[in-house]
Amino acid sequence: MTSGILLIDKSTGMSSGKCVYQARKKLGIKKIGHAGTLDPLATGLLPLLINKATRVSDFLMDEVKIYETLAFFGQKTDTQDITGEILEKSSKTFEKKDLEKAIKENFLGEIFQTPPMYSALKQNGKKLYELAREGKIVERKQRRIKVYDFEILDFDFPYARFKITCSKGTYIRSLVNDLGEVLKSFATVKELRRLKVGNFDVKDAIKIEDFEKKAVDEIIKNLIPIDDALNQYEKIILDKSYYKQATNGMTMKVDLEKNFDGLIRVYVKDLFIGLGEYKNKNKTLKLKKVFYEG
User: Could you tell me where the beta strands, DSSP code E, fall in 14-139?
Assistant: First the structure.
């Protein structure tokens, strides 16, 4: 069974689901998912997870992400981007120093954010954007997010281009919208591009248009190994006597010879078996997720 990670550079106007559909059709593989939805307006990195690689979805979702966005100040829309209906306009202007001050005081570190109505989050089994299209607005619970960096790349009012490094669950549209509220000028997203997900970079991705033209064998040959998505975890290499225990998910007696508790990548020789949990007190290792296809 073919498993691995395929990095796609999504084009604007296409949904993340459509990218998955095209990959399934092209590769003839049903079990394909993605590691984090991109808005139809957005472009950039969309990691596709094939077969057993779908098991690393939660780990990739947890990774830090980097975006570049172009904000337009002076109007507010219902979708918080330029595809939406204009709700309010403002003639208020400001200087770059005001923008820097607003970001520094309100949008760095751990903050609370209210998810937008136009999002794939669900309430009572129904997606928020479906409710929004019906003209319904429901109360959304604020979520704690973290903004590691909020860099101003360019500023020429009413436009500002930002590079934002943030935690999972961050909506760039809402950051821009809330920034406009703080500056009392309103703001909406004109462009949005995802540059990185963890260690994966859009520079290494295949444009969706080029993906359609590539031969299936070439695509499969260049899939990224599953363990590349787990490089944030320590690694242990076991000798071949552990092969059966490891692949069957059995608890193994192993001494790492260091004070360590938690998840660890497990290899038998050069074969990646999966992600295990090590307990230093008992010197035990048990596979939590097995990826090996022996």
Answer: 32-34, 43-50, 65-73, 75-77, 86-89, 109-113, 122-123, 126-127
Please state which CATH number belongs to domain 65-196: 3.30.2350.10
At the second CATH level, the architecture of 4-62+199-228 is: 2-Layer Sandwich (3.30)
Q: Which helix (H) or strand (E) holds 155?
A: strand 143-156
Q: What is the mean pLDDT of residues 24-46?
A: 93
Residue range 233-290 in CATH 3.90.79.10: no
Burial of 159 (0-12, 13-18, 19+ CB in 10 A): middle
| Contacts of 118 by beta carbon, 8 Å cutoff, 6+ apart | 78, 79, 80, 84, 128, 129, 132, 173
Report the predicted TM-score, pTM, of the whole model to 2 decimal places. Answer: 0.89
Rg of the chain on CA atoms, in Å = 22
Distance in angstroms (rounded) separating the CA atoms of residues 174 and 18: 24
Question: Annotated active-site positions, please?
Answer: 39
pLDDT in tens, 59-110: 888 899 999 999 999 999 989 999 989 999 999 999 999 999 999 999 999 9
Does the pLDDT value for residue 274 go beyond 70? yes
Q: What are phi and psi of 38, to 5 degrees?
A: -110, 140
